C-alpha cells in the first residue's frame, strides 16, 4: 500500500465533527496507543439535546476533543441526555462515566455485559489468568507478572454501573427517531448494535468494522464459545435490511451486508488455518498461536507486544473450540488443567 493510500485509509482519525446523516455527527476521539488509533462517537441531535452512541476513553485529550467538537455544532456536555454504549470496553464506556459524575447524563448498556462489569468493579482477574494457564500460555503469564509487579494489570480507567440495562432486543425511542438495540454477542457477551431503520443507518460498534476484524471474547466473563456467538450475530445482522455502516473504528459508509460476508469468509479461512496448526504439531492454544500469522501484515507472534500476544492466544482458542464443535478437532483436559487439541479420528 502506497503512503498516499495509507494516509487516505487513516483520514478518519483526524479530529473534528463530521455530519454523516441529517442530525447525526461522527466525532473521532484519540486512544492511548497506535493500534486502533481512534474511536468514533456518534452525536445524535434530539430536539433540545444530544444522545451519544458510545463515549470514548476517559482521557483528558479525548474529553477536550469531544468538548471542542460538540461546541462546533452548538452544544456542550450539559446537553448530553443519554449515552447508548455498545459495549463495556474502556474506549467506549469510561468517558461516559466521567461525564455523568458532573453532568448527570444517563448511561445505557447491554445486559449481557453485567457479569464482566461486575468482575471489573470487583478487581477480579483470576478467571483471565486461569484461562491463559489452561491455554498453555504460562510464558505470557510470567511476562505479565514481571511487567506488572507480580500481578496482572488492574483497570486504570473509571468504571461504574450504568443507569439502565438494555435486556434483549428493545426499541429505544428518542424524540427525533426510534433506534432498535440488537444484542450481537461475540466481541463481548453483551455487545449491542443500534439500528436506525428509517434512515438506513447501522451504529455497529465493534461488531462490524470496515477494515479489521474485532477481537473475540476479550472480557473477564468470557462465554464458552465466543467465536460461534460472533458468527451467529453476523448472520443475524444479515437478516435485517442492508444498511449504511457507522462503525466505532474506521470510516463510515459501505454496505453492512457486504462487510458481513467478508467477515464470515475471513473466519472460515482462519478456522482452516488454525486446524492446520494442529496438523503441523501444535497442541495448545498458545502453540497454535505461535504458528499463525497476525494482522493483515501476517506478522509473527513474537513481533507483537505483550497485550496483543494475549489477545492472539484468546483468539486462537476461540477458533480451536469452534473446530471441536464441528468435529474437526478433539480436546483433552490434562491433570494440570491444560487443554490439548488433536485432529479428530
Structure description:
Helix 8 (256-279) crosses helix 10. The protein is globular and about 65 Å long. The chain starts with a helix and ends with a strand. The protein has helices at 3-9, 60-72, 90-103, 114-122, 126-134, 138-147, 226-238, 256-279, 285-291, 306-325, and strands spanning 18-21, 24-30, 38-46, 49-53, 80-85, 106-110, 164-166, 170-173, 178-183, 192-196, 201-205, 244-247, 329-333, 339-343. The strands form three sheets. It has a seven-stranded mixed β-sheet with strand order 1-2-3-4-5-6-7, covered by helices on one side. A five-stranded mixed β-sheet has the order 8-9-10-11-12, with no helix packed on it. Mean pLDDT is 93; it is low at 1-7. With 345 residues, it is of the alpha/beta class.
Order of helices and strands: HEEEEHEHEHHHEEEEEHEHHHEE
Mean pLDDT: 93
Question: In which order are the strands of the major sheet placed?
Answer: 1-2-3-4-5-6-7
Distance between the termini: 43 Å
User: Low-confidence parts, pLDDT < 50 over ≥5 residues?
Assistant: 1-7
Strand content: 15-25%
Summarize the structure.
This protein is an alpha/beta fold. It has ten helices and 14 strands.
Attribute tags:
345 residues, alpha/beta, seven-stranded mixed sheet, 10 helices, 14 strands, 21% strand, globular, disordered N terminus
Topology:
Blueprint: H1 3-9, E1 18-21, E2 24-30, E3 38-46, E4 49-53, H2 60-72, E5 80-85, H3 90-103, E6 106-110, H4 114-122, H5 126-134, H6 138-147, E7 164-166, E8 170-173, E9 178-183, E10 192-196, E11 201-205, H7 226-238, E12 244-247, H8 256-279, H9 285-291, H10 306-325, E13 329-333, E14 339-343
Parallel strand pairs: 4-5, 5-6, 6-7, 11-12
Antiparallel strand pairs: 1-2, 2-3, 3-4, 8-9, 9-10, 10-11, 13-14
Amino acid at each position: 500500500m502506497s503512503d498516499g493510500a495509507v494516509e487516505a485509509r487513516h483520514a478518519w482519525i483526524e479530529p473534528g465533527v463530521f455530519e454523516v446523516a441529517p442530525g447525526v455527527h461522527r466525532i473521532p476521539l484519540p486512544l492511548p496507543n497506535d493500534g486502533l488509533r481512534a474511536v468514533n462517537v456518534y452525536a445524535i441531535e434530539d430536539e433540545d439535546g444530544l444522545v451519544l452512541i458510545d463515549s470514548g476513553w476517559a482521557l483528558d485529550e479525548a474529553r477536550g476533543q469531544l468538548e471542542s467538537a460538540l461546541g462546533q455544532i452548538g452544544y456542550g456536555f450539559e446537553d448530553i441526555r443519554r449515552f447508548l454504549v455498545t459495549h463495556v470496553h474502556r474506549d467506549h464506556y469510561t468517558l461516559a462515566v466521567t461525564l455523568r459524575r458532573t453532568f448527570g447524563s444517563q448511561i445505557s448498556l447491554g445486559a449481557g455485559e453485567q457479569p464482566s462489569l461486575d468482575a471489573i468493579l470487583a478487581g477480579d482477574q483470576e478467571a483471565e489468568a486461569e484461562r491463559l494457564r489452561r491455554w498453555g500460555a504460562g510464558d505470557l503469564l510470567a511476562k505479565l507478572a514481571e511487567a506488572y509487579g507480580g500481578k496482572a494489570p488492574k483497570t486504570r480507567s473509571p468504571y461504574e454501573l450504568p443507569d439502565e440495562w438494555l435486556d434483549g432486543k428493545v426499541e429505544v425511542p428518542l424524540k427525533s427517531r426510534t433506534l432498535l438495540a440488537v444484542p450481537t454477542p461475540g466481541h463481548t457477551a453483551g455487545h449491542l448494535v443500534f439500528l436506525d431503520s428509517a434512515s438506513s443507518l447501522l451504529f455497529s460498534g465493534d461488531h462490524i468494522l470496515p477494515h479489521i476484524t474485532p477481537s473475540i471474547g476479550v472480557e473477564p466473563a468470557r462465554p464458552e464459545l465466543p467465536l460461534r456467538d460472533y458468527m451467529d450475530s453476523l448472520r443475524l445482522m444479515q437478516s435485517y435490511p442492508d444498511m449504511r455502516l457507522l462503525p466505532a473504528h474506521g470510516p463510515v459508509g459501505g454496505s453492512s451486508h457486504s462487510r458481513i460476508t467478508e467477515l464470515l469468509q475471513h473466519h472460515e479461512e482462519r478456522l482452516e488455518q488454525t486446524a492446520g496448526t494442529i496438523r503441523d504439531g501444535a497442541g495448545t492454544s498458545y502453540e497454535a498461536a505461535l504458528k499463525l500469522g497476525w494482522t493483515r501484515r501476517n506478522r509473527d507472534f513474537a513481533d507483537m507486544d505483550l497485550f496483543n500476544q494475549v489477545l492472539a492466544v484468546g483468539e486462537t482458542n476461540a477458533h480451536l473450540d469452534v473446530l471441536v464443535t464441528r468435529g474437526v478437532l478433539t480436546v483433552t483436559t490434562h491433570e494440570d488443567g491444560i487443554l490439548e487439541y488433536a485432529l479428530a479420528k
